[in-house]
Amino acid sequence: MYVGEKKVFSGIQPTGELHLGNLVGALRNWAQMQDDYETYYCVVDLHAMTIPYDPAAFQAARLETAKLVIASGIEPKRSVFYFQSQVPQHSELAWVLSTITGIGQLNRMTQFKEKADRSGQNLGLLSYPVLMAADILIHKVHAVPVGEDQRQHLELTRDLVERFNHRFGEVFPVPERITPAVGARVMSLQDPTSKMSKSDSDVRSRLLLTDSSDQIRRKIRSAVTDSERTVAYEWKTKPGISNLLELFSVATGRGVEELASEYRDAGYGRFKMAVAEALVEYLRPVRQRYQGMDNAEVSRLMAEGAAEARRRAEVSMATVWEAVGLSA
Ligand code: TYM
């Protein structure tokens, strides 16, 4: 775990349907980092506008996402937790950063290429990583807990910091990416060579944080593995089993290799049953907290979070305006 400087930021898109990859790759680190750092967490609603959406459903999905983040252990009393659109400094800083970002660099972003293929190109989709850099930099943080799929975006952010500081003076720290040693890239249960994702049309490919115990058992039982019999941690030849081993390890806190040798000859059926039961227990408290939550109370907490974030972002943005020659 990162030790050193003290501030942390991360964000999640409001799809309303958070999955196990979000929890294992990112949210569990968010929760843990609250103990030692000043933490800023954000439901990045502006980012979700880059692909077509329905406004009424969007409003509801945003609140659902906030509830699921809180259910995953983010405590609005210990973190500054808010909706991105309610803190205008994110967009202001994005504009400033856009003026030092090369279009070629944005064109090369893997996620842009993937999403543009699926939903068509728009300027927001192309400049997405600039807004993401602004999210990270607005609070001048030092560390960003994310899954492996955000690597390229973090690299762009670090590049922009170096460019900005070189041109305008030392304004931003260079943020470090924090990914878990196990579970940084949770794979689809139906195709273990691609990542678990909200946009996969097959719902059996992912475990949702709201899935019932029976749904969890069914999805794990139908997870794609391979035609052999031996449980082994071997990504090249056994991606399905290796993915399940990583999830098993996260859910139990035990080592991957230790679990692999314990279940080596158990057969895939018994192995999957054990993984499913571990995941049922791992997800139970999240689902229970979520079910006990009150919408009005969560909305109130989010408004408070945004007010606090605006106060802090305004101070920080003033240093940017000054650096670029636009102080009051
Ligand atoms: P998003 O909303 O797709 O995902 C939220 C977090 O979950 C992680 N994640 C995964 N981790 C492991 N395995 C998976 N299969 C998996 N799928 C998702 C993501 O890495 C992420 O950490 N661009 C970001 C949102 C964002 C952001 C930011 C993040 C906007 N501004 C600033 C950090 C800092 C995204 O689309 O995440």
Describe this protein's structure.
The chain is mainly alpha-helical. It contains 13 helices and five strands. The chain has helices at 20-33, 45-48, 55-71, 89-98, 103-107, 110-119, 123-138, 151-168, 213-221, 239-252, 256-263, 268-291, 295-323; strands at 7-12, 38-43, 79-83, 143-145, 176-178. The strands form two sheets. It has a three-stranded parallel sheet with strand order 1-2-3. Strands 4-5 form a two-stranded parallel sheet. Strand 4 (143-145), helix 8 and strand 5 form a beta-alpha-beta unit. Helix 4 (89-98) runs parallel beside helix 13. It is globular, with a radius of gyration of 20 Å. The structure holds tryptophanyl-5'AMP. Tryptophanyl-5'AMP binds next to strand 1, helix 1 and helix 7.
Small ligands present: tryptophanyl-5'AMP
Q: Structural class, please?
A: mainly alpha
Relative strand content? 5-15%
What integer is the average pLDDT? 96
Question: What secondary-structure arrangement, pairings included, does this model have?
Answer:
Layout: E1 7-12, H1 20-33, E2 38-43, H2 45-48, H3 55-71, E3 79-83, H4 89-98, H5 103-107, H6 110-119, H7 123-138, E4 143-145, H8 151-168, E5 176-178, H9 213-221, H10 239-252, H11 256-263, H12 268-291, H13 295-323
Parallel strand pairs: 1-2, 2-3, 4-5
Helix pairs in contact: 3-12, 4-7, 4-13, 7-8, 9-12, 10-12
The structure holds tryptophanyl-5'AMP.
Tryptophanyl-5'AMP (TYM) binds at residues 9-13, 21-22, 24-26, 44, 47, 132, 135-136, 144, 146-147, 149-150, 153, 184-186, 195-196.
